[in-house]
Task: structure prediction
Amino acid sequence: MKAKTTAILLVQMIFAGFLNINAQEKISDFNKEEIKSLMFKVTDWQNQHTEHLAKYRPLNWHFGAYYIGIMSLYEATGEKKYFDQMYQLGEKYSWATENDIYDADRIAVGQMYLDIYKEKKNPKIIERLKWVLDAHIKRKPKADVRFDGNPYRREWWTWCDALFMAPPTFAKMYEVTGEEEYLDYAIENWLITTDYLWDKEENLIYRDDRYFEQRTPSGQKVFWSRGNGWVFAGLAHMLNVIPEDHPKRSHFVEQFKGMARKLAEIQSEDGMWRPSLLDVEVFPQPETSGSAFFCYGMLWGMNKGLLSKDEFEHVAVKAWNALEKQVNDEGRLGHVQPPGRGPKHFTRDEWHEYGTGAFLLAGSELCRSIDKRAYPESHIKGKILYENTFSSQQDVADWIMEGPGETEFKENWMHMYSPQEKGHHVFWCPNDFPASFIAEWELQNIETDAGLCIIFFAAKGINGEDIFDPAFPERDGTFRQYTKSKQFNNYHISYYANGKDKPAREIAHLRKNTGFNKVQIGEPGIPVKSTAIHTMKLIKDGAHIVMFVDNRKIIDWTDDSNEYGPVLEGGKIGFRQMQWTHFRYRNFKVWELGNE
Result:
């Protein structure tokens, strides 16, 4: 047995050496455009191969996991054709789920619906899904998470895969509605299931209770690669939503970190994981779907500050290098174990939509990692260009208000709002700023029921004119005058989003105008109900744009000057509010970008 193990490890080491020829060694070595191109290739191949539709229903988990990956691809790259693909699919099936509504596998598709809803805000998108989730919550019996011998095992989260399918769907419904019962249900039942299936010695999870006593021929416990991948990715998706101060968040963080450390420990030399995680001899072929989920989770954990770069970067990089090798020249991702409930044999030619979904999650997170490491987290402030405390009306005597907005000054703050909520408005600083600068200001929400805050910057006429050129038509705060103007260009970031028509979006967006082109979906901006004082920082380093809320990065994007025209250089800065908004501002400062 020892000789056999040594031979297998030797083969893995040789394979690993082959894979690592010209392989990247750290995240900053990767080229984001190459990663995007590979993901587009894999997605387009998958979209052209629909043989599995004859066997698996298009709203079931096999495809639901793929759709989740496609939405992540869209969010990381801004490639709108993939968003349109998902929207058209939702329309085709009337935003429905499968009929056996208590089965976790049938509601995974709802995560894609909720991501679409964040953009479209059309209630019909989540109407059916909300009814389904409400039916879950209204059940009274205590969850029975036994699998073996349980006639109702499909109605509770009795198998580990369910933790990717169902809990994040409930958590995302909480995210878009603010109704805490959805998050409470997800957390309570997640903890019931993991308390039953989690192996605290190994920090891995059994597929279901039939595996508690099973052992491989060499006596190892049986932990299924993709099953643990479902849970590792599910943890990331739950932690994306659970508030930082939630009393149960620490349980999820502990599970996530524990699993990450174990997975790093048992990663094979070639960068992949095997179907049976603790026994590579049983099925020695690499398994792509589990490996992709593990790669994704580790990248996500580093991006969120939960995992140490020193400890996990080499693990994630080695995994992605290996995953790339599983894509053939046509774009097919191979070595994906077929549907099942535990480790089993398969070939390198096996492909499945959920494997592609996991690959897209990993690649999208790698793109975000590249963005985070391509530039320093802090930039040096050079010479001060502009400073305004916003303490009195005199301080803004030369500022220009467009639309029915007003300012008033109290306790060294500038309040901005529209009396009787008459209309949207933009307040412009009269100065022109260079192509590279750092801007900071403080602000606080006074009316949390609704509102939207945007900053316009690099605003200049299409031919280089001042935006207040008398030849331009007068503007009155109407949005299209700034986003689809034929007179001037700008970038804009929405960093607080809680409109009466589209409530509680929260996610920051960066757009490039003219044309209202969404170029990045960022991180959550100012929480919709927050009444804290927040410090904003906007950095424009030529083509590179970064924005922070309280030192938390919400936007990080580089304009490649290709798809939407040349990089916008210098210009004016303006603060926009929707008519329902009442914020107060102070200490607006702009610096040159200094040299390091």
